[in-house]
């Protein structure tokens, strides 16, 4: 008998402009899955966020879905995955260590930023919230040590 969704441990769900649904799951190695609008399901790759949790998903402008992984924010649309912004030591002003996003929130407007937070997860002891603007500029909104 195939596994039920509760056995797989789906954690987050978001849909892109094409009607494709993306799911992150924890019980199967923190993975990203796609279910197309025609009902075809497939594995897209690992999706582990800071702290070992399944990546958060958010629907954003342009019909893309965004997710935070260990040290980057990725986008996914039509089954393709790309890097919106990666973070390394010093990439976020005022943040000590590597910014590792725990949660991501997007606006449906292309002119407004995408927001991400880090919760002090081992890559850095800092906690913080940033805004990433469409021109890829990062603004630190809050940092706590």
How does this model look, in words?
With 145 residues, the chain is mostly beta strands. The chain has a single domain, classed as YVTN repeat-like/Quinoprotein amine dehydrogenase (Methylamine Dehydrogenase, Chain H). It is 3% helix and 45% strand. It has 1 helix and 12 strands, in the order αββββββββββββ. It has a 4-stranded antiparallel β-sheet. A hairpin with an 8-residue loop joins β9 and β10 (114-119). It is globular, with a radius of gyration of 15 Å.
List keywords for this structure.
single chain; 145 residues; mainly beta; Methylamine Dehydrogenase, Chain H; four-stranded antiparallel sheet; globular
Q: List low-confidence stretches.
A: none
Whole-number tally of structural domains? 1
Query: How big is the Rg?
Result: 15 Å
Tell me about the largest β-sheet.
4 strands, antiparallel
Note the overall shape. globular
Give the overall average pLDDT: 84
CATH topology: Methylamine Dehydrogenase, Chain H
Number of helices: 1
* Helicity, as a percent range: under 10%
Strand percentage: 35-45%
Got a strand count? 12
CATH superfamily: YVTN repeat-like/Quinoprotein amine dehydrogenase
CATH class: Mainly Beta
Helix/strand-derived category reads mainly beta
**Succession of helices and strands:** HEEEEEEEEEEEE
What is the first-to-last residue Cα distance?
49 Å
